[in-house]
Write a structure and sequence with these properties.
Elements: E1 5-10, E2 15-23, H1 25-35, E3 44-47, E4 51-54, H2 56-71, E5 76-79, H3 83-95, H4 109-146, H5 153-163, H6 168-190, H7 199-237, H8 240-246, H9 251-290, H10 294-304, H11 307-314, H12 316-333, H13 339-371
Length: 373
């Protein structure tokens, strides 16, 4: 590649700006530093006779120079440009903005209220559409009791494996580490009061009632909600769902129902796995940090907690499963015919599923407090 340079010659009547070499994007930054020194008052000639190659970035640099000099009242003209170079320069100059870009107005109170209103209406419409989809799913489930043969068992088992069995390793690791962290942090605080034994109560209540099923649902939301949206959205983009309707197949029965039922079956199982692994991690760290043997940990666990704490946490699992499956399928059915829509709605499904799972968990906590559980 030939290095580009600028030669400026002023004879008192006009300024000759000669560009030499390959005026390409790699040289533009260095050339502009030299061209910034060019000013009036006389006319200026931009000589391109010795330019070997010129790309769009170089043409933009020349066009920007001409526009700057024209704004200062300096007349410019081109010399020695080939036909191709002239056409490129004309195209670039025609694409430049004609004037300074207007300042973007700062949003005022009215604009903020309008944005808030639009977001509220959009959230309300989403809630209505989710409720409609839930009603359609419940209608298909009721129809299965009358026609059990309509259940696509193969699809159900496949989604149970994808959403449940394949999630066991990450759920187990997450719950084990949560148990370790709870035991370590609890030991650090309770040792100050000589109440180390109560770390077992802390681990048991936290894991069984809240963290076990909640964190499991969050992981499943990240895995399954995105997978459901991506799979159904891809089918929507390829018009496979329209083809299903043409063939007389119900997309909700074929695509949505097996996924939601798979989550309803598998999320309680994953919650049970998370509870066990969380207790194992807590017991291991209690043994290492506090010297509480596994036998002592088990005895304290059985004395301080009962099955109601486990059931209290496990009751949430089917509700979380319905929320995750419903949102993942709903966003997939909303995908339009482009990849940008697919990516945006896949991200939205994960965020919305996790948000609603946390909201539902807070609702359960308030309900349990009111009824004394």
């Amino acid at each position: 590649m030939t290095d580009a340079r600028v030669e400026i010659d002023t004879d008192g009547r006009e300024t000759v700006i000669a560009l030499v070499g390959e005026v390409l994007i790699a040289q533009v930054e260095g050339l502009r530093a030299r061209l910034d020194a060019v000013a009036g008052p006389g006319p200026a000639v931009i000589d391109l006779r010795r330019v070997e190659r010129l790309d769009t970035a170089g043409a933009w640099m020349i066009a920007d120079l001409r526009r700057r000099l024209a704004a200062d009242g300096v007349e410019t003209r081109l010399a020695g440009a080939s036909r191709t170079q002239n056409e490129l320069l004309e195209t670039v100059e025609a694409s430049l903005p004609k004037g300074p870009l207007p300042d973007r107005p700062r949003p005022g109170l009215r604009d903020r209220l309008a944005d808030f209103g639009e977001a509220t209406v959009a959230a309300g419409l989403t809630l209505v559409e989710l409720t409609a989809l839930l009603g359609a799913v419940m209608a298909r489930i009721a129809a299965l009791f009358l026609h059990p043969g309509r259940l696509r068992f193969t699809s159900l088992v496949h989604h149970m494996q994808e959403a449940g069995l394949n999630a066991v390793p990450i759920v187990s690791l997450m719950a084990f580490l949560i148990g370790v962290v709870l035991a370590f942090q609890g030991a650090t605080q309770l040792q100050q009061f000589g109440a180390e034994i109560f770390v077992v109560d802390l681990i048991a209540l936290s894991i069984l009632r809240e963290l076990g099923i909640l964190l499991t649902a969050i992981i499943v939301a990240g895995r399954s909600a995105s997978a459901f949206t991506a799979a159904i959205g891809s089918m929507k983009m390829r018009e496979e769902i329209d083809a299903m309707r043409t063939l007389g197949l119900d997309p909700i029965e074929v695509l949505v129902l097996p996924r939601i039922l798979a989550l309803v079956v598998m999320l309680p199982i994953l919650g049970f796995v998370a509870d066990i692994m969380g207790l194992v991690g807590g017991a291991l760290m209690s043994w290492i940090e506090l010297g509480i043997s596994p036998g002592m940990f088990q005895a304290r666990l059985l004395n301080a907690t009962d099955a109601s704490h486990y059931v209290t946490g496990l009751i949430k699992a089917p509700f979380f499963a319905v929320l995750i499956g419903l949102i993942g399928c709903y966003e997939g059915l909303k995908v339009e015919g482009n990849a940008e829509s697919l990516g945006r709605l896949t991200s939205k499904s994960v965020v919305l599923a996790i948000f609603l799972v946390i909201v539902a968990d807070a609702g359960f906590s308030i309900f349990y407090a009111l009824v004394g559980l």
